[in-house]
Fold:
Amino acid sequence: MKNKLKKSIRIKSLFCFLIMFFVSCSLVAVPGMELDAGFTIKNGRAGEDRAVAIPNLVTISSKGYSFFAVLDGHGGKEVVDFVAENLHLNFIGSEYFPHNIPAALEFAFKETDRLLSDKEFAKRCGTTAVVVVVTPEGESFIANLGDSRVKVFDGGRLIFRTTDHTPRDINEMIRVMEAGGSIVVLKKDEGSGQQTVQKTLTIREGLLVVLTQATRILQRYQNVKKTIPKCLPDDFSDRNVARIFVPIEGSSDAITFDMTRAFGDFHCKPLVDGERHYWISPEPSICMSRFRSKKRWILLASDGFWGIMDYNRLDFKKVISNMMRQGKSAQQISEALANKAREEWEKCLSEERHCEIDDITVLLVKHPFQPI
Structure:
């Protein structure tokens, strides 16, 4: 009788263990075991932002990998929807996954863009992307394309941030020009808010634009009281911005782009003698550093969040710190951050600045119940 009872207890214990094992593999916020992740999207003028949060990518050969992405579409919803559905599949379908995560990420970005190349809708719309992959060992790999952004914090200390791909980055400016693209300076009319082309830049002039803007930033933030080098026309100001210039075939109009890397936008990736020239590139920047701190938290967001928070110099870290101390979830924190950004956009409108409310996406990934 005792033997039967012991056997029954062992079977029930094994059964309970299996249930706990499968539950812990499927939930996001199990303390000490799984990541806590949450995202919020606030649609603005276009409704073209998307977020992907897969806390446990299960394949035949592996499990326990997490995949997070924020996508900021433009020109239409077709490309951003395609990337949201296919990017993670191309990642785990790569021959490099899971033994070489950076190579798998690069393959996934390029393959996804290649699959878009024969889609009619991908000619005039696209999307930026920022991706974070977390391994079962807690290592993080980051890939970004365009001007969506990731910041990684250890407690309250910033330890990593991605760099936006824009025409104001000198490396990107030169890459675009060498690929046959044009960079122009736009001048904004203060009365109407309309932007017109002031001039097309040469590589030398592009270097001067970057130098001048960098000097002005130093003056603004470090109170450097030195004269700005006389290297640009008198009517060039901080409100003048560098953009990629793309003429519309059969029209006198043109499109300008504030990012230099994106999925889609194949009118900016012309075929010349059978070779594609990437004015706008699908190749991501990949961070191969490994962040393993248990106090780590990672914030992914579209430029609808970063732009307004940077413009108004708002310290979102305090919001996150206070909410983490209160034991709030990543989902609750992402909602608070997105709501704050939306409030700032509405203030912008009420002050009659020339702006439209942008789409806002915030995705937060953290170890659960870690105060900072």
Remarks:
- The chain has a mean pLDDT of 77.
- The chain has two domains: 28-164+283-366, 170-258.
- Residues 170-258 form one domain.
